[in-house]
Amino acid sequence: MEIKLWILLFFLQSHEWSCGTGVFFTKHPTNQTVSQGNAARLGCAVQALGDNDIVWMKDGEKLYSTDQMFINLGEHHWETFHSVKSVQQQDAGQYWCEVEFDGETFSSERAWITVEGVPHFVQEPADVATFPGVPFNLTCAAVGPPEPVEVLWWIGGRPAGNAEPSPSVLHVTGVNSSVKFYCEAKNLRGISVSRTGTVHIKVLPSAPVELRVLEMEDNNVTLSWKPGVTGHSDLSSCKIQVRQSAGRLRARQQEVQQEVQVPPHRLQLSALYSHRNYSFRVSCSNEVGESPPSTWLSFLTPQSVPSAAPRNLTFDLSDKGLTLRWAGLQEEELQGKLLAYKLQWILGGEVQEPLLFKETSALLSGGGRFFNASFQVSACTVVGCGPWSRAVLVLPAAVKVSVQRSHMWVGLLLGLLVATVTGLLLTALARRREKETQFGSVFESRSPESSVSFRAARSFNRTCTDLPESTLDSLCINDDLKNKLQDVLIPERQLTLGHMLGKGEFGSVREAYLKTDDSSVQRVAVKVLKSDITSSGDIEQCLKEAAYMKDFHHPNVIQLIGVSLHRRVSQRLPVPMVVLPFMKHGDLHTFLLLSRLGEQPFDLPLQTLVQFMLDISRGMEYLSSRSIIHRDLAARNCMLDENMSVCVADFGLSKKIYSGDYYRQGSVSKLPVKWIALESLADNVYTTHSDVWAFGVTMWEIMTRGQTPYPGVENSEIYEYLIKGERLKKPADCREDIYELMHSCWSPVPKCRPSFQHLVVQLEALWLSLSPAPPLKEPLLYVNLEGEEGGPGRGGAAGVGWAVPWQRRAEDEETDWLMVGSGAALAIGGDYRLECDV
């Protein structure tokens, strides 16, 4: 009989494997009912083609048990057991075993372990918070097996009523003080006791704790606190009292309060005064009432720049010197700890070195040197200086009385002075001088183009010794920059500065004459850093532009002539001067405006306009081949020489790419938003592709004869305008092929824009296709020549705004520029045309 069973088993296994399963369960787990605390054991046997693992499962989860064992019943035949030494209620559930074979899972039959024992709780009574005498309910539920289960309540150590079937709800009519309670569950196996709960009587919360100042930025402060004991009732709100401590000018403290919903337990206070002592405390409320207030926490708000200018600035001029007095600021106006009063004075239109004073008065020796000087004073804290006071003009007492008595005499004297100066100038211009002066020998030729030659003579002052010649070592710049500029350093004595061509925030540009080694004289333009900038870092940034231009050798890129250093009396650092070619016809933007809006408008043929574009593209192709990103390409930064050739200029914002093909703008700089590429506005990333975008805008400027791009679109709206797919519209009278070329420069995908090499090829073909341009009208020969000083015809050096802007108002400058940082843009002011730093 046993042999027949084994043959049948073998036949069934062979039949199972022949169907392709490869797994056969020879034993399955069976249902078991076990008393709590006793042992339980489940068995499972599997025969398979391989030595596969047998895994036990409980209620769908894999069991990890150290009590599991395996017994080898034969080849590829294993039996396993799952044992529990002391069964508890958590061991009750459904069990089976599984085997994985050939990517499939095979399961045995399922069996239950039922645990009999004392009841176990499925719902224990929870704590209760209530008012005195208010009724409430308590709930308790327990289950077997075995069933049934009865529940008995205990309150304050005494049973409450009789036992009743589970689940049980106990109704309590109310208590007047805190009390403990629990429930008992009973069945045939024994008794179980629930957790002990508490009936709490609701009371007032305690005072908040851990008051802190989380954050303090400008005049905004974020306060936080933690609640104390809540009084067994959720907090609904907190009241914050804030007071400003009494100062010298305040007789009593000022106090305000504000109520906020909680959580969160924090409050942001805004529009606080700068540099003031404040204190705050907090009290919180629940449904019973308000807690006592916390202790006061004091804090000091950050300092700010003064909000007002010193008043009543007066002066007293005597033989001993000049005495200036002014009224100090009140505490509310100062907004910080006073560092000093900054005294600024202007003499002859030039801003002099500012002076600092701790007191509200200043005594300056040598009163005569301040005649006709105007003074202003400003209060300064560690954050910065406040607004300037009204300017006061220093005049001797006799002159002031005379002015008060009769303005007619002053007008008459000024008229005589102007007439005398005009006569002297006319006499000087009429005479042909060929004589020696203390400044050299000056000659004037009869040729149409004026030429000047001279032998420089060193000026002197009987009261001062000559200043030593400055060197690059005195600038405290890095060695690489110093070595790069050493061979282009020009002694100051070889330069003779002329009238001013342009002036801005960081310096000025002047016409000058340079005496070369062969005694010839060259007309140049000189960029001079502002005299009150004393930082070697500022000087180094401005000289970097000169270092870029030193290596440029291309007819359409401005070239550096040299660098000179102007030594100043009683100053540690000399003033750097960058010497550049004199551009006879000024910047391209001014030239285009004059052709359309000048007093004598003139025609610019299309071939001439295309020639301008071709010159710029050739210059930019050269720069891109040298891995230079310009970052500020625009018509205003392109200069016209005497042959009407365009040179790309102003490399104050340029960057050399040393690795990769892009430059990321790290700090905030003043940049022209309407010329910046879409990706540069978004991420501050600049590449040659972003220069191509700016070239497309420059082409649009040329075709419109100097119009402002995106008319009617504010600077703050440019990014949203471009991201929607909008672009500059086709100018009137612009050929379709020219517009298509400039429009290709504005592709939203940078690598889809044409290269400068491609643009040069396209523009050369376009220029050759045009008929020869007719002769320019006569007025064009006199545009931007040597006009009157300050007039629109003034030539200039290469650079942004080093030529005088044509009829440009200062208030218009603010509307053309934005300060671009990490994804945000804020309107700024100031003169961008003389921005030296990067």
How are the secondary structure elements laid out?
Blueprint: H1 2-18, E1 23-27, E2 32-35, E3 40-48, E4 54-58, E5 61-62, E6 69-74, E7 77-84, E8 93-101, E9 104-107, E10 111-116, E11 120-123, E12 128-130, E13 136-143, E14 150-155, E15 158-159, E16 164-165, E17 168-172, E18 179-187, E19 190-193, E20 197-201, E21 209-217, E22 220-226, E23 237-244, E24 254-261, E25 266-269, E26 277-285, E27 297-300, E28 311-317, E29 321-327, H2 331-334, E30 340-347, E31 350-351, E32 355-357, E33 361-365, E34 374-380, E35 392-393, H3 397-405, H4 407-430, E36 436-437, E37 440-441, H5 479-486, E38 489-490, E39 495-503, E40 507-515, E41 521-529, H6 536-550, E42 562-566, E43 575-583, H7 588-597, H8 606-625, E44 628-629, E45 638-640, E46 646-648, E47 655-656, E48 663-664, E49 669-671, H9 678-683, E50 685-686, H10 688-703, H11 718-723, H12 736-744, H13 756-769, E51 796-797, H14 810-815, E52 818-820, E53 825-827
Parallel strand pairs: 2-10, 12-20, 38-42
Antiparallel strand pairs: 1-3, 3-7, 4-5, 4-8, 6-7, 8-9, 8-10, 11-13, 13-17, 14-15, 14-16, 14-18, 18-19, 18-20, 21-22, 22-25, 23-24, 23-26, 26-27, 28-29, 29-33, 30-31, 30-32, 30-34, 34-35, 36-37, 39-40, 40-41, 41-43, 42-43, 43-51, 44-47, 45-46, 48-50, 49-52, 52-53
